[in-house]
Design a protein that fits this description.
Elements lengths: L3 H11 L25 E7 L5 H4 E2 L4 H6 L15 E2 L5 E2 L7 H5 L3 E8 L7 H10 L11 H8 L7 E5 L14 E3 L14 H10 L5 H19 L3 H6 L8 H13 L4 E8 L14 H20 L6 E7 L19 E7 L6 E3 L20 E2 H10 L9 H4 L13
Helix pairs in contact: 10-11
Length: 409
């Protein structure tokens, strides 16, 4: 177990802000505990709008296959098909690592879920989701910061953000620690210097296997460098890709399960704006989903017994269009799928009212309709999961009252 001095050393080495360290010196007000539990909450925001229809695949819907002749995930039992969940929905095969959690009923999904605001702007939608007030940016603090004010007394209420700056969801009057990311994934290489690249180009301009490997590798790197300035990267707001979760998730798990008593953690993962070359069971989206699933599994393993009292939420600002576009991708949509993992979760089930994908059933004729407000999915995780009194939900989500009860916990 990590003691306070060890944590301070770890925090200093990892870039925890001085402001965030403020809560380590505060003395919590103790009263009755929440049934003796020490619940934890991890929120992961997939910035850029992940394609929920290819994450949890509605393989019984003919409209899904009609609208996605190249991007649809095949039905379970077919080559590279979805992994059957419940006879109606299937999981993207790149997320096969999560199936043990599904089978142990520690993983659930809420489909046709999201923010009711109609915006298709990444930035507005992310702000609304982080503020917890769709369509209204007047709220000055984020809903996860407001959660800190309403956790039951009797234990410290510490929050951690994995990133260099406090995100909107954790902004507010309560102290938050920022645990900096590691080095940037894309750093200048000697090969990026024009004279060196020119020399290598001449050396490997032929048609040998080695030359083709060099040419393909260079092309891939150029594409990646170019994408740093595209809408996809802007939509990510500087968040790293999902491959970072395995390493950084271990750091979060250490703090949640150690003596630091951290209760809430937030992580942003970018790269999900798949307008171009999204792929189906293989390809770009699959390459994003695979490390995400592995990272979630790693967090569970690193939490150990703490996972029994931990809830993990994975959400994104909106979904993507039902129909694929002409560039082998999907555009900004509306409804999406929300993921919930944890030891207290009533998992092994896809929650939410499914609206269908026929054109007449779609939102504005193009998108998955939202039948469950994302706040309805989060509400029971706060009350039954974190011990927050129901009367405080209106303060965490101002002007909102739960509409659709979900038995997630």
């Amino acid at each position: 177990m990590m003691r306070r001095r060890q944590f301070l050393q770890y925090a200093a080495a990892s870039g925890v802000t001085a402001m965030g360290l403020g809560w380590l010196g505060k003395q919590p007000v103790y009263s009755q505990s929440f049934s003796g539990r020490q619940p934890k909450l991890i929120v992961i925001l997939l910035r850029g709008a992940v394609d929920g229809l290819n994450v949890v695949v509605p393989y019984r819907e003919s409209g899904y296959y009609d609208a996605r002749p190249t991007l649809a995930i095949a039905k379970p039992g077919e080559a590279r098909g979805a992994i059957d969940l419940d006879g109606q929905f299937g999981l993207h095969p790149a997320l096969a690592d999560l199936m043990p959690l599904w089978k142990s009923r520690q993983l659930a999904f809420v489909h046709a879920c999201g923010s009711p605001d109609p915006t298709r702007s990444h930035f507005d939608a992310q702000d609304y989701m982080e503020l917890g007030t769709p369509g209204n940016k007047k709220q000055g603090d984020g809903w996860l910061n407001r959660v800190l004010a309403h956790l039951p007394a009797g234990r410290p209420t510490q929050a951690l953000n994995l990133g260099n700056q406090t995100p909107l969801i954790l902004s507010g009057s309560k102290s938050v620690a920022n645990l900096a990311f590691g080095r940037q994934a894309i750093r200048p290489l000697p090969l990026d210097r024009p004279p060196i690249q020119s020399a290598f180009d001449r050396l490997y301009e032929g048609a040998t296997n080695l030359s083709r490997a060099y040419q393909e590798g260079l092309e891939a790197r150029e594409i990646l460098k170019a994408e740093l300035n595209t809408e996809m990267m802007k939509a990510s707001r500087g968040a790293p890709g999902p491959s970072s979760l395995k390493t950084n998730g271990r750091r979060i798990a250490q703090l949640l399960s150690g003596d630091a008593e951290t209760q809430i953690a937030f992580v942003s993962l970018g790269g999900w704006d798949t307008h171009i070359n999204q792929g189906s069971s293989q390809g770009r989206l699959a390459r994003l989903l695979k490390p995400l699933g592995q990272g979630l599994n790693q967090i569970k393993a690193d939490l150990g017994k703490t996972f029994d009292d931990t809830t993990i939420v994975v959400m994104s600002e909106f979904g993507r269009t039902v129909a694929e576009n002409g560039n082998g991708g999907t555009d900004h949509g509306h409804g999406n799928v929300l993921w919930v993992l944890g030891g207290q979760i009533q998992g092994g089930k896809v929650y939410g009212e499914w609206p269908g994908l026929a054109e007449s059933q779609r939102y504005q004729g193009r998108d998955l309709e939202i039948t469950t407000d994302f706040r309805d999915a989060i509400a029971p995780l706060l009350t039954k999961g974190m011990g927050i009194e129901s009367k405080h939900l209106n303060q965490i989500f101002p002007g909102y009252s739960p509409q659709t009860p979900l038995g997630l916990i």
